[in-house]
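Protocol step 6 of 9: fold each sequence in the batch and record its structure tokens directly after the sequence line. For illustration, a two-sequence batch is reproduced in full.

Sequence one:
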Amino acid sequence: MSREVHTIKCKAAICWGPEEPLTVEEIEVEPPQSSEVRLRLLFASLCHTDVIRRSGFRYPLYPRILGHEGVGVIESVGKGVTDFKEGDIVIPSFIGECGDCENCKSAKTNVCLKYPTNFNGLMADNTSRMSVKGQKLYHLFWCSTFTEFTVVDHNYIVKINPELQLAHASLLSCGFTTGFGTAWKEAKVHRGSSVAVFGLGGVGIGAIIGAKLLGASKIIGVDLNNRKKEKAEFFGMTDFINPKEIENKTCVEMIKEMTGGMGVDYSFECSGAGSVVNEAVEATVMGRGITIMLGGAEKNASISCLALLGGRTLKGTTFGGIKPRSDLPSIITKCINKR
């Protein structure tokens, strides 16, 4: 006989409005409904996307619990959930993978048509499982990890090997994996190629590691913060540019000098700054350069069409092209093996 599942009271960080400081308050988390699980969060991490959502960009939904990077243990399961059980260690994901839709069967994309990203801050039945002071709380995507307990649709969680350090598992649920996956699945970086990474945060470091593992011979990192140089070099960066310290040259000109005047084969925009997108495109080689935008650039970003007329390619990505259930296990194995 299954145990009775009750509403839980716990602590969570609440976002009450644009740019307002988060406040830690007691909330109520309801039992999981059909096709849902309730998680006890073990670790959570911060992503630039959380900062953007806090500001209200695209969907100003408040009060809200932010956070979409995390790892947790299943505390209880709702009706119809048969592939997970209490005690499983899982990563919540902001995209799903049904395995059956046209996109999932394709090798071209990881954007599932049956289980897409959720932007309305509610569960599948358009209600919330969390509240504060009697007021409905909006989720972030299907996740909301800045809380001790959360409820997630089971189609958006991935069971993980518990041998992985769980603090590291949190970083795999978005930032690092987005960068790593972009080099691996989206760009398909080839051996001996040249790469430029704009922005050396968690996403950028992931792109550097992916490019190195795939055999890139030159990996140029670009960042305004010199403190990131040493860590990026440890993970495989070969050259570093701080645009603030360049005299009489642009960042693009510096990159072309480092690549025999041609530009890099691949560039990854990981900073989130709209003005950087065009630099990333112009830094690639004419005719075959590929730029991938990962940073969630602000809404007023503009793209120069002239830079693309020379045969360059610019594309966006979701989660670095990674399919949560098909691809994450191999990344987890690489982490366990310290690759």
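Sequence two, same batch, same settings:
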Amino acid sequence: MTSLSSVWQPFTLGRIELSHRLALAPMTRNRADPDGTPGELAAEYYSQRASLGLLITEGTQPSADGQGYLNTPGIYTPEQVAGWARVADAVHDKGGHLFVQLMHVGRIAHPDNTPHHRQPVAPSAISAEQDMFTAEGPKKTPVPRALSTAEVQNVVGEFRHAAVSAIAAGADGVEIHAANGYLLHQFLAPNANQRTDQYGGSLENRARFVIEVARAVAEEIGADRTGIRISPAVPLGALDEGDAVAVRAQYRYLVAELAKLNLVYLHVHHLGDDELLTSLREAWPNAMLVVRLGRERDGITADIDAGLADVAPLGRFALANPDVVERLRTDGPLNDLDPETLYSGGGHGYIDYPLLAQA
């Protein structure tokens, strides 16, 4: 039997008590209604996975400008808040806890996919040159419009409003998405951020926007309900953060500044620089969540066992196995992921993965 003993220890995360150290990692599923309201199937999807304890939702845009993909949810209109309230109620009814991930995609967008069809916004007018799926098929992401200094402050306000809206919907907290090539990550990357104001140039200036967003959200809903996700050196969205020396300097500064805000957790999408991960752990006062790319079943507890993490979020294992906690507890078999249905819409490949009892 695979030994995962360390994940079954309880853990206190801010205001919530977790009975184990597993969680649901945030994963885009493209099932929202056209107006960005979580669809009727979303409550079922998340409640099926409530035994994971901490459920971090798919990326959820804080504004119309924050949307990049088709059918992703928002958290800035009354209708969207009502949709997330149904999700939160369903999760709470099953004993789980919900953190809404706030994701502004920045330049990883196409006007065909947004409600206003405007040019995407970004730190600088530099295209990511990425293929973006639209209703008419794949199209290249266009050159974005650089945000003015005043507009950067407006986006901070959008995150503030989105966090308040998530709590109004009954969520237990929010995760700020500063990773994976999206807007906050774009500000950190020199090849995407060539600004000459206080948000560009030095590593301190490039980190300023992320810190301001985190501070604003924590002020609104409490630091004990605010987590943040980072992905040092992850080259998604065509970002280049420089060599290992540059990446370590950037993230050691950023995390040291974020640590002053006493946020409830730091969620690291980790690509393999264990020296950096160790130093971030030493600098961070509260909980650490770590996801390693390609981590297999027998490696789920590795970072917890090494003292580098407190919680191990699960991605594909949780997506394909709504009862993954029971399966891991009993060393049961795992369903295989169906990649064809990840973003296909509808219930197939979303809420119809079989339970262990049905296998």
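Proceed to step 7 once all outputs are recorded. Observation for sequence two: The chain has a mean pLDDT of 96.
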